[in-house]
Write a structure and sequence with these properties.
Blueprint: H1 2-22, H2 29-42, H3 44-52, H4 57-66, H5 73-91, H6 95-114, H7 120-124
Helix pairs in contact: 1-2, 2-3, 3-4, 5-6
Length: about 120
């Protein structure tokens, strides 16, 4: 029964992570990590698929090895986040929603800036 629950949670997390790639307010990484954790404990087949055959596999393998982002990823994340929030701020006309979006943006940027990045020398080890 526990295996089935973990599989369901894992696939729900994968779905949310996939949606999070498109929607700026839904984070992708925590859902990917949750899916990897669930699949590691419930289905080696799905865990291998996630790590070696999915679009997200490279980033998950890199995180497992180094506990850091690959070089260049942090900059792309920040730019994409700024662009998507800029569109949201442009479309939204309600002042308190704009303020909320700006607060969320500030929190996300602070979080992203603090994420570690592995350098080329560490990556070779």
């Amino acid at each position: 029964m526990q295996r089935i629950i973990l599989l369901i949670i894992g696939w729900l997390a994968m779905g949310l992570a996939t949606i999070g790639v498109i929607l700026p307010l839904l984070p992708t990484t925590p859902f990917l990590l949750l899916a990897a954790w669930c699949f590691a404990r419930s289905s080696p087949r799905f865990h291998d698929w996630l790590l070696y055959r999915s679009v997200f596999g490279r980033y998950l393998r890199h995180w497992q090895q180094h506990r850091a982002l690959p070089p260049g990823t942090k900059g792309r994340m920040i730019v994409f986040t700024l662009l998507t929030f800029a569109v949201s701020l442009w479309l939204v006309k309600i002042a308190w929603v704009r303020l909320l979006l700006l607060c969320l943006l500030a929190g996300l940027i602070v979080f992203m800036v603090r994420l570690p990045v592995v350098d080329d020398e560490q990556q070779k080890r």
